[in-house]
Amino acid sequence: MDLGIAGRTALVCGASKGLGYGCAEALVREGVNVVIVARGAEALDAAAKQLVAVAGPSGPFVKHVAADITTEAGRAAVFALGHDFDIVVTNAGGPPPGDFRNWDREAWIKAVDANMLTPIELIKATVDGMAKRGFGRIVNITSSSVKSPIDILGLSNGARSGLTGFVAGVARTSVAAQGVTINNLLPGSFETDRLKGTMAGAAQKSGQDFDTVWEARKKNIPAKRFGNPAEFGAICAFLCSMQAGYMTGQNVLADGGAYPGTY
Ligand SMILES: NC(=O)c1ccc[n+]([C@@H]2O[C@H](COP(=O)([O-])OP(=O)(O)OC[C@H]3O[C@@H](n4cnc5c(N)ncnc54)[C@H](OP(=O)(O)O)[C@@H]3O)[C@@H](O)[C@H]2O)c1
């Protein structure tokens, strides 16, 4: 299927690896110009080179900005490039696992800043321009924890629920009639560095070794495997497509069937 977005320009945050990279690569494969962001310059540079190879010599452009997207200065560095983004994928890594008894105000502010306020700032900075131009796609990478909370990820459960509530409202404002969709894409368990970190936390908490926890988690997923970033990216690219223009304000779960609810 031709997704009809070749020539569009996307901002993909948290994209030097993992799910953000998967989204960037899927968009590049559709002929979308991308600006990718992450803090670590070396990994970002390598990711950009990989994307340039995917794009090919006459393909879309790939730019990268080494910045912390959760800071005003980081976002300013991205917007200083002067692009009118047609597509924005928000993502900023997830908060650390732990016990809520140990989280102080600072830990909560950091999580809310990264996983709620940063996507809101990015939406604020881009949505009106998209609406004016009559096309826009915003995809927020959130988490299955929004639907099915994970005990050790309380910071994520809380902060992302705030974003989910905000998106439910803003997606249904006047921008919906101006070609702009805003959706959340909810990963279950995808094989990335982040998942390894979360599992290490779970192993430590339960006193089991890492491999035991890793395999047990797989067995609990109806698909009996973890997802991979490329399949996550393909769903993201579809949400950014022309064909997905009538889908907005949705929470799209990609979890191999792990969420047990009917709805
Ligand atoms: N993988 C899963 O199974 C899973 C499940 C549920 C939810 N999630 C959520 O999905 C998101 C992506 O996860 P992932 O598994 O792809 O993580 P990952 O493999 O750790 O990759 C995170 C990416 O985001 C970048 N990043 C982190 N903080 C950033 C910041 N402040 N500014 C700019 N870039 C930043 C990282 O690069 P730098 O560190 O160099 O900045 C890296 O490129 C996270 O929010 C995670 O919590 C993942």
From TrEMBL:
InterPro entries assigned: NAD(P)-bd_dom_sf (IPR036291), SDR (IPR050259), SDR_fam (IPR002347)
Q: Which SUPFAM superfamilies match?
A: NAD(P)-binding Rossmann-fold domains (SSF51735)
Q: Name one Pfam family in it.
A: adh_short_C2
Q: Which family does it belong to?
A: Belongs to the short-chain dehydrogenases/reductases (SDR) family.
Q: Can you say what this protein is called?
A: 3-oxoacyl-ACP reductase
Q: Which organism is it from?
A: Variovorax boronicumulans
